[in-house]
Structures are given as C-alpha cells and as structure tokens.
Amino acid sequence: MCPISEVRQREAQNRLHHFEVLAGTERNRLPRADVCRAVKEYSRPAAGKDTTRASELRPPDVLLKTVCYLVDDVAACPSRQPWTEVYSFVFDRLRSVRQDMVIQRVSGPECASVLERTVRFLLYASYRLCGQPLRLYDPHINDTHLQESLSWLLECYSEGQHQHQDEFQALSLLYNLGSPRALQHALELPHKVRHSSPVQLALALNRAYMERNPVRLLRLAQRLDFLQACALHRHLLSCRRDLLLLYSHGHSSRNCRFPIQKLADILSLECSLAAQLCQTHGIHVNGDYVVFSKGSFTESPSEELQCAHMHKLVDDKQQDLSLSNIIHGIA
Where is the SAC3/GANP/THP3 conserved domain (predicted)? Predict the structure, then answer.
C-alpha cells in the first residue's frame, strides 16, 4: 500500500502517522513502520519531481485493496479515536489513491469501485463532522473533493453500465439540490436509470426544493435511506427555515395556536429543538403551542444554532448500520 522507498524516508524523517507505526516501537526516537499498515501519503506535485516512476505507482487492484483497508481497518475501527483524526488520515490517503489513478489513467470497474467508496466516505464525513471546529474539519475542502469525485464517477458511468449507478446518480442530485446542471444531467440519463426508484425519489425532492415546498420535501425525506439522508442533510436547515417562514405567513393570527409537537413532527425534530428553532427565528413559543406572526419572523438564524444539533432525521436512519457496510454499500 506504500512504496518501500517512501516508508524508509518517512521513518528517517519521523513522519509516520501513529496508525502506521509498528507495535512496540512507538516510544523509539524513530518509530518503525508496520509495512502492513503504512499507506502512501498524498504528495503535492512539485516542479522537477518525477511523479510517474512505476515503482511508486500502485496498480488498480492494489488501490482498491488500499481503499478497503482504509475503510475496514481505519475508518470503521471503533478503537481509532477521535474520529476527526481518523477522517484526516483517511482523507489524505484516499487523495493519494486518486492521484495514482489520475497518473495511470485508471478507468473501468475498479476505478468506479474506488470512487464509489470515496464518495460514500466523504458524504458520511460531511454529516458526522458537521459543526466541528474548522481546524479539525473544513466542510469547504470536503465539499470540493466530494464534488470532484462525484463528477469523475458520473463520467465513468457514462462509459458503460455499472451496478450502483442508480444509487450515485440519486446521491449526486440530492447533494446538489436546486442545481440546474445536476437536474439537467439527471433528466438526460438513460430511461432505465432515470426511472429507477432512487432517481425518481431524488427528482421529486429536487422539485419540492425548487418549488420551495418544504412540507413536501420533509415528507419525502422520510423515505430516504441513511446515505441519501446524509447527502440531503446540508439543505435541511434552509428547508426548515423556509417552512417556518411559510407558516409565519399562513398561520399569522393572534388567536391561532399551533401545537409544538405537530410542528416538531413536520420538521423531523425533537420538541425542544423545534422550540429553539422557532425562537431563533423570532417565533413566539407559549408552552405547548407556537404563535406565528409574519411581522416577528427573522430571516437570519443566530450563530448558536448549528445543523449538527438537528440531525434527528438522519440519525434515525442509521440504526444499527455499521460504518463499514455503509461505505461498502452493503444494505
């Protein structure tokens, strides 16, 4: 998984990650590498550096085995904590895998298999690490690499039939709700793919989003599986804001009392969080009821309100799914 020349170089420079260190040598001045756990790190191309030496490039089958190792033995390992560090390590090593694929112009099923696991990992990370400090997790960088991997994967699909194409065409649309480009791509898919259940559901959600129909969107979201909900989750805060704005106009009356429990069910939130969201937007909560007023609604939520606190819709879908099965696409 890592060229021996890089292993020796990083040993000498004391640049081994502790996930790669040979057991029993951790306290050495220069810890030794466990060659079964060392993984080639990402190296930014530099002027004058030869990045195409065959001895340093891993063939496609080794790249896929490397990704499987990163998923099963690192990302999904309960003893690897904190998960922000796990993410940082796996993110870098997956980036190195894609770098090797670009240099070798890898294509076909093995390329798709690597990219599928990469996309699932980055989607899961965008949900799990939502709200983490920027020094530990940068959502913009994660989004950039996720979009690049998705784009490459969809390009692979255009070259032939693949087993998981329906799943990832739907994930692409859900992640990019409201994007004209993503919608056009979905509408131009082959008939069989476009009319598959995942893509049809994603199209319905996208239509509800474009029509600013948050009630329908949240109702349709109940039908998503866990990874699809991860793809959607970054849109949920704005969707809930739109719903409260809609209700602030539609139920604006001094005599109208809207049950907080019913509103929480519509928003897919706990009652306490639904009340907090209402108060953040200037909506008065009186005991078990909400009093809507179009004059009191405030558009911009406070910084105290974080998407990470409102993951119930996504959390409920994970249930007993293991991270390994999620990333490998095993139902």
Answer: 1-286
